[in-house]
Design a protein that fits this description.
Helix content: 25-40%
Shape: globular
Largest sheet: 5 strands, parallel
Oligomer: single chain
Radius of gyration: 18 Å
Bound molecules: zinc ion
Number of helices: 10
Structural class: alpha/beta
Order of helices and strands: HHHEHHEHHHEEHEEHE
CATH architecture: 3-Layer(aba) Sandwich
Mean pLDDT: 89
Distance between the termini: 31 Å
Strand content: 5-15%
Number of domains: 1
Length: about 260
């Protein structure tokens, strides 16, 4: 319930004080609502938004610290390939993006939803638009958490994907968005502070495909805000492949 007040307060603030930087509160020189510069001033955005660029692992999407050289499979994927076949992102999880995701998710700064969504769609266009995708599935929250937060951040990141696609490519996409079929059936304690083994254990059987549509032979694209160890995406992907999905990829706003 308390979150509802925060949501209303933020909407009210956005109405009364449109165009102030979320970080330093300086006035912004009004730009389109779908750009990050509608939420942060140039100073706070810096010249260095942590854009997600190669070289990275083609499988788990991990960015290599050495900015030279080719993309290649990372050690983790060679040793234990994840269930998700391909992870791609819009940003690396750092700087103003990391802070913004925190504001968006835990502080209900919903003015960030559209800008983040268009950044995610941009990454989709670069890395995934030409690939076989039948279904886009945002990672769900457990119902109690969804009720408490008042929104599912992953869904807000793909809500307008169909219209963004039509706008960009001039045709309707051949995928659909399904935000109801995948269900989080188990409340999991917070993942923060847990290592990968503990996270996996924590998330075992946390998701279930309850959609009416059969996933037999389908390619599914999972969407989440942040990818850290990949335990959440992998648990969700496991539920989708159990339900017959052929292949599961993931697109996230930020890759840690
Ligand atoms: Zn600022
Ligand atoms: Zn990897």
């Amino acid at each position: 319930m308390f979150n509802l007040f925060k949501l209303i307060a933020n909407e009210f603030r956005a109405l009364v004080f449109p165009g102030t930087c979320l970080k330093c509160r300086t006035l912004l020189t009004g730009k389109g609502e779908s750009s990050l510069s509608s939420c942060y001033c140039t100073g706070c955005l810096g010249n260095e938004l942590p854009h997600y660029i190669p070289p990275f692992c083609p499988c788990c999407g991990k960015v290599f610290t050495s900015r030279t050289g080719e993309s290649h499979l990372c050690e983790d994927c060679l040793r234990r390939p994840p269930v998700v076949s391909r992870v791609r992102a819009a940003f690396e999880y750092k700087g103003v993006v990391r802070e913004g995701i925190g504001q968006f998710k835990y502080n209900s700064r919903l003015s960030l939803a559209r800008p983040f969504e268009s950044c995610l769609f941009h990454a989709f266009g670069i890395y995934l638009a030409g690939k076989k995708i039948d279904l886009i599935v945002p990672i769900p929250l457990y119902f109690k958490k969804a009720r408490q937060r008042g929104f599912n951040q992953s869904y807000l990141l793909v809500r307008n994907f169909v219209s963004l696609y039509r706008e960009k490519y001039g045709i309707p996409p051949d995928w659909t968005i399904d935000a109801k079929g995948l269900v989080r059936v188990k409340q999991t304690s917070t993942q923060t502070g847990l290592d990968i083994v503990e996270r996996r254990k924590n998330l075992k059987q946390a998701f279930k495909w309850k959609g009416r549509e059969s996933l037999e032979g389908k390619s599914v694209l999972l969407v989440d805000d942040v990818y850290t160890t990949g335990a959440t995406c992998d648990a969700a992907a496991g539920a989708l492949t159990d339900a017959g999905a052929d292949r599961v990829d993931a697109l996230v706003l930020a890759r840690a």
